[in-house]
From TrEMBL:
Its cofactor is (6R)-5,10-methylene-5,6,7,8-tetrahydrofolate; FAD. It holds the Pfam family FAD_binding_7. FAD binds at residues 188, 200-204, 239, 242-249, 340-342. The lineage of its organism: Bacteria, Pseudomonadati, Pseudomonadota, Gammaproteobacteria, Alteromonadales. Keywords: Chromophore, FAD, Flavoprotein. This is Deoxyribodipyrimidine photo-lyase. Residues 1-90 form the Photolyase/cryptochrome alpha/beta domain. Involved in repair of UV radiation-induced DNA damage. Catalyzes the light-dependent monomerization (300-600 nm) of cyclobutyl pyrimidine dimers (in cis-syn configuration), which are formed between adjacent bases on the same DNA strand upon exposure to ultraviolet radiation. The record marks 274, 327, 350 as: Electron transfer via tryptophanyl radical. One of its GO terms (biological process) is response to light stimulus. Its EC number is 4.1.99.3.
Length: 438
């Protein structure tokens, strides 16, 4: 997990503690350790505090499901009831099936069914509960532990040293979401691919830590625009579709658990031969590939813990289809850097880019990083922000500087691979692999 994400969790816990105090509720924070020790620790906490019921939100990854089954078994032995809520998806994975009562493997028919079901069962936002007459007494240990978390948010970590401040109170988070819905959602389809402008919601960090739910997102967008938001003609529809993609990757992980155990959705690709080139991997991570849009994106990720969605697609395509490196390396690296690191979405996105996942991009669909750069950062604004050594170049030069100047004198890298040759090699590799399966 990225240090920037850990810091956001700590900040949210501190804010949550204050919000709960207003309702006479004491927040106790426990470090559960590894999954194997959590059932015992949680059971001890319940016995100590005479707890009779435990509620939690369901997670759909394989290890998390095994963990929750162990927790339930341990608590039930002590006559403590255990129940889960399904808040991370708008529709439970078990509730959407095709006509053969089998799970969908393709997004489009899944999305059609998802829309029907969300409208039918979307509850409203509950009323705010009143404060308790009495609450649990604050524990000095609890307060000291949470105070120690505050100090941890101030550390300077390499993957978030220049990270922007992310609000952490419930009111600020809701304001950020509603601000996007009201001001930017109508233009989302035309602005979401431009990394130099504020065209995306940037609420994914809050979804990833449970500070916002997809149900809240859909409720507020419907409150603002009604069912027009679910029409393809409305700008908010594209944003709603992204929420559905998030659900879909959890759905895939639930029904096809092998994807959460390091295997590709299309299992035959576990035998595909990727390049074992550590030098190229290090250059990609460091933003030294010689392709400015890729390098600027990777440097921004390292320094802020954040990457624009269009840039994620560009750097992933370059990694998988130009460098032909193992997608699992990059999946793990992204999770170590992203403030919004989300296991299911990250796994699904990397498998999509590598053409090994469900509903994946065909292997011959390969982004040209230079034309992507020219299209989505035409003036080079984003590139020049993160690659100041290229700041004096013209818009024509900045996308492919090695063709126009001596980049090494500027302190910039030469391209580590040539576009056309890399694309040809990748297509031949995939084509040969698939032919051998027949």
């Amino acid at each position: 997990m990225a240090n920037s994400k850990i810091a956001l969790i700590y900040q949210r816990l501190v804010s949550l503690q204050e919000e709960l105090k207003e309702r006479n509720i004491n927040l106790q924070v426990m470090d559960g350790g590894i999954y194997e020790t959590l059932p015992e620790k949680l059971t001890e906490l319940c016995v100590k505090n005479h707890v009779t019921h435990v509620y939690c939100n369901a997670e759909y990854e394989w290890d998390e499901r095994q963990r929750d089954a162990s927790v339930k078994n341990s608590l039930n032995k002590m006559d403590v009831a255990f129940a889960t809520f399904h808040d991370t998806c708008l529709v439970k994975p078990t509730e959407i099936m095709n006509l053969k009562n089998e799970p969908y493997k393709v997004f489009t028919p899944y999305f059609k069914r998802w829309l029907e079901m969300t409208l039918r069962q979307l509850p409203g936002v509950p009323e705010k509960c009143s404060a308790n007459d009495t609450g649990l007494k604050d524990s000095e240990d609890d307060n000291q532990y949470i105070e120690s978390l505050i100090s941890k948010t101030n550390r300077q970590d390499s993957d978030g040293s220049d990270a922007p401040s992310w609000p952490a109170t419930a009111s600020e988070i809701t304001k950020k979401m509603n601000g996007f819905i009201v001001e930017f959602a109508p233009d989302y389809p035309k602005n979401r691919d431009i990394p130099s402008i504020e065209g995306t919601s940037k609420i994914s960090p809050y979804l990833s830590i449970g500070a916002l739910s997809p149900r809240q997102c859909l409720f507020h967008v419907l409150q603002e625009y009604g069912e027009d938001a679910l029409s393809p003609e409305h700008g908010a529809y594209t944003w709603v579709k992204e929420i559905a993609w998030r659900d879909f990757y959890r759905y895939v992980m639930f029904h096809f658990p092998h994807v959460s155990r390091g295997l590709p959705f299309q299992k035959h690709y576990q035998y595909f031969k990727w390049e074992n080139n550590q030098q190229h991997f290090d250059a990609w991570k460091a933003g030294e590939t010689g392709y400015p849009i890729v390098d600027a994106a990777m440097i921004a990720l390292k320094q802020t813990g954040w990457m624009h969605n269009r840039l994620r697609m560009i750097v992933a395509s370059f990694y998988c289809k130009h460098l032909l490196l193992p997608w699992k390396w990059a999946e793990d690296y992204f999770m170590s850097q992203l403030i919004d690191g989300d296991y299911a979405s990250n796994n699904g996105g990397w498998q999509w880019s590598a053409s090994v996942g469900t509903d994946a991009a065909p292997y011959f669909r390969i982004f040209n990083p230079t034309t992507q750069s020219e299209r989505f950062d035409p003036q080079g604004e984003f590139i020049k922000t993160w690659l100041p050594q290229l700041a004096h170049l013209s818009p024509k030069q900045v996308h492919e500087p090695s063709k126009h100047c001596d980049v090494q004198r500027l302190g910039y890298a030469l391209p580590i691979v040539e576009h056309k040759a890399s694309v040809a090699r990748t297509k031949a590799q995939f084509k040969g692999f698939l032919a051998a399966l027949k």
